[in-house]
Design a protein that fits this description.
The structure is a single chain. The chain is α+β, with helices and mostly antiparallel strands. It is 60% helix and 14% strand. It has a six-stranded mixed β-sheet with strand order 12-15-16-9-17-18, with helices on both faces. Strands 4-3-5-6 form a four-stranded antiparallel β-sheet. The longest helix is centred in the middle third of the chain and has 54 residues, at 245-298. The chain is elongated and about 125 Å long.
Length: 651
């Protein structure tokens, strides 16, 4: 299982160069300020103050040494006078440190709150946006990779906000502050330090470039392996049934080994960078100490910014010693700055993936016809009402400001409909059908004939390429999707039960349904008897998609869920395919009650479940090749007849 995308360096990472995605970083920072417009500036001020205080001790050290040196040179033995000058400096320094501790405490508390709050809002934005994505997105993206956005990518964003950005700001402030102090005291010594720092930056760029590009690839590959694991977890029964364990292990090992190689290279570079930079800093420390000694012994003139105000003097011990501390500070923070670049690059790769999910185009909905509660009198006059009457109508606004109301009856018509999932690959050709209110329309055909596709188009999970679909005489493109889908009930072949009680899962079809309505729906579906035999009855907890129930029982709950919604149109996509023959007889009686008075579209392989349909459509390669009721199709002795008599089987 080759991964060509993993072997290709991401944009901006070619030729081993690490580049920060400034567009993504700017967006993260902008969203931070938008999320917490007051707290973020306060946290930044705290960080800046703490950083500035960290650079100040060198100044006080120089002043203390200057006092001591002055007294030693003058031969003055009255150290009490020197103490009188030194003690106030120490007190001021202690006060500054106490302030620094206060600001650091405030900053850490604020950043903890800001970070977790920001991540909470990001997860909310992702999830809320995901609810409005079209079905096509989930059909074309691995679910495990989508899950990786909420786990791995969010975690890298946490590191960026809570650690990398504060460290960068703090290190930058310290570097600039210390550089200014060094220039104030000695230009020559500062030049020695800067030459060493240039070497550190050069080495960091060479080593860090390789690290960063692998960290970006690592981020994408983690999503791939999580996608594969999720796929294997959900399909574990299939893996075991077909003894696919060895093949699954082989495929996983290949992906895992590729992840190991990328992770190893990324961390090898990153782990090598720190010790090298640290030792360059140690060497620079020795060089600065030696240079300072040479400058003092040779009596070289000490050019500095302070010299502009006080005149050029000689380099002295009280300047050289603090310079060593400043060198450690300067190189240490340059090293910290360099170390954070890789984390930032990786975090921005995760943030970019998050933004791509958030920026996905939501499902388009140009509809303006809505579904409203109504009262319909014997003459067919419609009155909109806020009460739930059990009667519904389409509220249709017109360009001239008038409103018309059309009773919801469940009349569905398709006219010369074409459809393609991909451009140029048509899967439905010139489909025309009429489903009048209360009719049961069945679709029969081989796998891939287009049966499920037709029902997906009624729901507008996908939009047709040509033709029209009319619902109660209204083009469904004019109906708001939420209202359209509220008028439809669907039972899929693959059941999806959610964590919660049996009652919760039935009520999913209508969130304001009472317990009595849910129980009535379960009785209608034929699920009441087995539910009452469960240890907790309707309050029995379901987990892992109802793994503690049989497939047939799960399907019965799904049917009850559709029944409680009480829609005028029902779509049953292989709804009884997972139920045994004995249970099917129970379900079929409930289904007949459920379908009474409704327009029903049925997809079934078992012809026994559709024999009583008003119309049976036989599809082949996206075309309707036969239509009529059971007896009519038997008399024609075509494809349906061959299916019924066993001369031909569905694939």
């Amino acid at each position: 299982m080759s991964n060509t995308s993993a072997r290709k360096a991401p944009p901006g990472m070619e030729k081993g160069k690490r580049k920060i995605n400034w567009r993504v970083l700017g967006r993260v920072v902008k969203m931070l300020f938008q999320s917490y417009p007051r707290l973020v500036p306060i946290a930044m001020i705290c960080i800046m103050f703490s950083a500035a205080v960290a650079a100040i001790p060198s100044i006080f050290t120089q002043k203390v040494l200057a006092v001591v040196t002055s007294y030693m040179d003058s031969g003055n033995t009255d150290w009490s006078a020197a103490a009188g000058e030194i003690i106030p400096l120490v007190i001021v320094l202690i006060c500054l440190y106490l302030l620094s501790i206060t600001f650091t405490t405030i900053q850490t508390q604020l950043m903890a709150y800001i970070t977790q709050g920001f991540l909470c809002k990001m997860r909310r934005k992702m999830f809320d946006g995901m609810q409005h994505l079209p079905i096509r997105y989930f059909d074309t993206n691995k679910h495990g990779d989508i899950m990786s956005h909420y786990t791995n990518d969010i975690d890298t964003l946490r590191q960026l906000v809570s650690q990398s950005l504060p460290v960068l700001l703090q290190s930058s402030i310290i570097v600039v502050t210390v550089l200014c102090i060094m220039l104030w005291y000695s230009v020559w010594m500062t030049l020695v330090v800067l030459l060493g720092v240039l070497l550190m930056i050069f080495v960091s760029g060479k080593i860090g470039g390789g690290s960063a590009k692998y960290f970006v690839r690592l981020q994408a590959h983690v999503g791939k392996i999580e996608g594969y694991i999720q796929e294997m977890m959900s399909g574990q029964k299939v893996v075991k049934v077909f003894s696919h364990e060895d093949k699954a292990k082989e495929e996983f090992h290949e992906i895992n080994d590729e992840l190991f190689k990328i992770s190893y290279r990324a961390n090898a570079y990153a782990n090598m960078l720190g010790p090298i930079i640290m030792n360059i800093g140690n060497i620079l420390y020795v060089i600065v100490a030696a240079a300072g000694g040479v400058f003092i012994l040779t009596g070289i003139q000490n050019y500095s910014v302070s010299a502009l105000f006080f005149g050029v003097g000689m380099l002295t011990i009280d300047i050289a010693v603090p310079f060593l501390n400043m060198t450690k500070q300067f190189t240490g923070n340059v090293n910290q700055f360099s170390q954070q670049i890789n984390s930032i690059v990786m975090a921005l790769a995760g943030a970019d993936r998050i933004f791509k999910l958030m920026d996905q185009e939501p499902e388009a909905d140009e509809g303006y016809v809505t579904l409203v509660n109504a009262r319909i009198d014997e003459q067919g006059n419609v009155t909109e009402t806020a009460e739930h009457t059990g009667q519904w109508a389409w509220k249709h606004p017109h360009g001239d400001g008038t409103l018309t109301y059309t009773p919801l009856r469940g009349d569905v018509r398709m006219e010369h409909m074409d459809f393609a999932y991909e451009e140029g690959k048509t899967v439905l050709h010139d489909v025309t059908l009429y489903a009048e209110p209360g009719q049961k329309v069945a679709f029969v055909g081989a796998t891939g004939a287009g049966k499920t596709t037709i029902t997906n188009l009624i729901n507008r999970f996908y939009d047709i390429a040509d033709g029209k679909i009319r619902y109660d005489g209204i083009n469904i493109n004019k109906i708001k999707k939420d209202d359209l889908r509220r008028s439809l009930g669907i039972v899929l072949q693959e059941t999806n039960l959610f964590t919660g009680t049996v009652m919760d899962n039935i009520r999913y079809g209508k969130l304001d349904a009472t317990d009595e309505e849910c129980i009535a729906a379960a009785k209608l579906a034929g699920a009441h008897d087995f539910i009452t035999r469960l240890p907790g009855g309707y309050q029995s907890e379901l987990t892992n998609n109802g793994a503690n129930l049989s497939q047939g029982q799960r399907q019965l709950i799904a049917i009850a869920r559709a029944a409680v919604a009480d829609p005028p149109v029902m779509i049953l996509d292989e709804a009884t395919s997972s139920i045994d023959t004995r249970t099917e007889a129970i379900v079929q009686a409930g289904m007949d009650r459920l379908m009474k008075g409704r327009t029903v579209f049925v997809i079934a392989h078992r012809l026994s479940t559709i024999m009583n349909s008003d119309v049976i459509m036989v599809l082949d390669h996206g075309r309707i090749i036969e239509r009529g009721d059971h007896q009519k199709l038997i008399d024609e002795k075509g494809t349906y007849y061959q299916l019924y008599t066993g001369a031909f089987e569905l694939e």
